[in-house]
Specification:
Length: 234
């Protein structure tokens, strides 16, 4: 629904599958949406956990301010940001991240007096901020107004270094269960330099993929499983 509301036809997209059971349903879900391509990424069963390790840990803190820009100076803004800076530093210190290892950014929500919507801009001196807001408003909405500028809210974002710099290589070997079924069962690594047509089962150490009838699967150089409905080409 969200894709359609944005004018994007799912049929033109590639379905991304993740989670330990995502690969079991990816072909059926793609077909229900009229899609002919799908990806089961490497480490799909632990993708969210891996994302938490490679993402930079961070915190955000916000506070209302609501003052006209021509009534404050740089010191007033700095004082407004101090409690927010202390908060994000303390929370990340509890995770073992020192304040000196953080990258911090300070942002201000601005608007013309009487408006309800705001635009965000990086922290700077009030005079420079007003000029920047006029330019930003014109770039965004196509016009500027001869009205006072209000500073509505403050936001601080702090981020540390990723907990994992290099993703370790995948486990190549996967123990395959013994089965009497006619459907072939193979490991993801077993698809190197070959393709398999469904129905087939592809197993990982953390996930299982069902290659449905009419679909074909191959492994790319990054270890990601690429699936497509070969009936569309035929």
């Amino acid at each position: 629904v969200m894709s359609a509301e944005r004018g994007v036809d799912p049929k033109s997209a590639t379905l991304m599958s993740f989670g330990g059971a995502g690969g079991l349903h990816v072909c059926e879900l793609a077909e229900s949406l009229g899609m002919t391509r799908a990806i089961v990424p490497a480490r799909s069963g632990v993708l969210s956990a891996l994302g938490m390790l490679v993402a930079r840990p961070g915190r955000q803190a916000t506070a209302s301010f609501l003052k006209r820009a021509d009534t404050v100076d740089g010191d007033d803004l700095a004082q407004g940001f101090e409690p927010l800076l202390a908060l994000v530093r303390d929370e990340l210190a509890a995770e073992g991240i020192a304040a000196g290892d953080l990258d911090t950014e300070r942002w201000i929500d601005c608007r013309y007096a009487g408006q309800s919507a705001t635009l965000e801009w990086p922290m700077q001196a009030p005079d420079a901020l007003v000029d920047a807001f006029h330019d930003l408003h014109e770039d965004t909405f196509g016009h500027r107004l001869e009205l006072p500028v209000e500073l509505v809210g403050l936001r601080v974002e702090a981020r540390g270094a990723p907990r994992l710099d290099d993703v370790p290589p995948q486990v190549v070997e996967t123990d395959l269960p013994k089965t009497d079924h006619d459907v072939p069962v193979m490991s993801r690594a077993g698809l190197q330099r070959r393709e398999v047509r469904g129905p087939a089962i592809v197993m990982d150490s953390d996930a299982t993929t069902w290659v449905a009838e009419g679909w074909q699967a191959a492994l790319n150089a990054g270890g990601h499983l690429l699936l497509h409905d070969h009936r569309d080409a035929e």
